Structures are given as structure tokens and as C-alpha cells.
Protein: Response regulator
Organism: Streptomyces alkaliterrae
Amino acid sequence: MTHSTTRILVVDDETHLADLVATALRYEGFETAVAGDGRETAARVADFDPHLIVLDVMLPDASGIEVCRRLRGGGCRAPVVFLTARDATEDKVAGLTVGGDDYVTKPFSLEELVARVRAVLRRARPEHAGPALAFADLEIDEDAHEVRRAGVRIDLTPTEYKLLRYLLVNARRVLTKRQILDHVWEYDFNGNDGVVQTYISYLRRKVDTGRPPLIHTVPRVGYVLRAADGCGGADHGRARR
């Protein structure tokens, strides 16, 4: 992905802040648009088709969390970086729960925001896509950016996708929370590795519910992708050609 083709929608009812953020992102080479509330956001998503949305949590007609929920419900899969004046953990978790991919707490530096945006974009669209990766009945098609289990497509957010891919290419290897955080998020969340546990639970609901579990917890160590009996498919972590 080149910056010249990357569109970012900035949503904030503080016009001066929205314009400042949009200008900073344009300076970095991104194409930008702005919106001031939830209703305008829906319209701009439809006509601008952003690759990423920078979304303020406090909007005049709806919370950013509710706006994100509506966008996800309507099929929008663009990554979302929340801007929030709230520093409470429950607010951050709420944003991630509805499909957000990162958050930046106000006041913030423009350099920090740009770094977060770049990291989320890298997670959303890996630079080097390749053939399908498979383990047991789980398959990731990197060219199509799709995940299937037993032939059934599983809808994942960009962060969930990158987390599952990391587990898959390291199948049967126990990964610590710190390893996962460093590889998947590429930003240390101020040392808060609780986000890993949160996203593992999201993946389990989507990947393991109603099926033999593949994602396992190793107490006091981390997580591992393996078949329930400890034996996975012969293709684990390799590309099918």
C-alpha cells in the first residue's frame, strides 16, 4: 500500500482539531476527509471509502463507540483508531470490543497519532501477502485476506486477523503475551498486555465456538495454537501451493 492511495477519515466535532489532524496526515502523504458527527460519518464512509478512520469517542449525536458499532454492523471493515479524553480502562476496552483497533488518549502528539495510524495500517494490510496458510481445518488465504474454518468463512477485524495469523505461523509454539503484543500491535500500549487476553477471547468466540478448540492458554506463560489432542494438521504454519 502506498500512502498516495491510502484514504483516512478524521471524525471529531472540534473542527479545529479535526482539521489539524487531517492536515498532519496529509503532510505524511495520506488522502484525508473530515466529518463532525455520526450522521456525517456514515455519509463520508459511503462516498470516501476510507482505508482507516480516526474516530473521536465524544460526538454530539452519538458516541464514537456507537458509531463504530453501526459501521461494523453495516459491513465497514476499515480499521478504527479512537480518540478519547477518557483514560479509564473500561472505556478503552469498550472501544476495542465494538471493533476498534487502537486508541489515542487526549491530549496527544501528532507524531504519536501518525505512528499509531501507520502501525494499524500495517496490521490491516500486510506488505507481503502470499498463498494460503493452514493448520488442521483452519485456513488463512493471504491473497484474499480471508479466514475459513472447515470451509466456513470467519469475519475478523484487521487486528484479529494479524493475531490469528501470528498464532498460526507459530502453531504448536507457546507465545508469551509480550511476544504477541510486540509482534501484533507494534506499539507497547504503555505496557498494558491485557489487550492480548481481550483479543484472544474475541478470536475464540469466532474461531473455536462450536468446534474443537484450537486456541489454548498455557497458564502463566501465554497462548498456543494446537489441536485439542496436541496434534495438528500436516500443513500447520506452511503455505499451501
